[in-house]
Here is the input.
Amino acid sequence: MADTQPLVRERSLPFTARVALVLALVWSVLLVLAAFTLPLYGYSSSSATVDGSGGTEEITGTATLVQVNGWTAVLVLAIPLAVTLLVGLLLGVGGRGQRAGAWALTALLGVFTVLALLSVGLFMVPVVVALMVACASAGSRAARTVGG
Here is the structure.
C-alpha cells in the first residue's frame, strides 16, 4: 500500500548553505572594517629650499580608503554586507520565489563586482562565490515524508 503522508519541507538551511552565508557575512564585515583601518594608499612628497642650500625634506605616509575617498567608500563596501543579509533572509524563509530572489541579488552583486574589479571588486569576489554556494546548496533541500 502506498504511503499517503503529506510532504513537509525542511525549514532549516543545509549545513553548506549556512557555512557559506556565515563566510560571506564575515568577509563582508571585514571589508567594511578594512575601509577604516587598512592602509591601502601610500604618499610621498619632497621639498627643497629655493636658495639651493641643499636642505630637502621628504614626507611619506599611508592612508585608508575612508581617509582618501570619504564615506562613499564605506557605502560601496557595505553593498556586499547588505546583499548578504538579504540573501540570508530570503534563503531562510525558503520557497521557490525567495530562492529566485536570492539568486537575482547574488547575480546583481556579481555584476557590481565585475564592474568594480579595477578598484575594490577583487575583494568582493569571495562574497559572491560564497553567496553562489549558499544559493545552490539551499536549492538542494529535499522534501521529506512525515511518519513513514
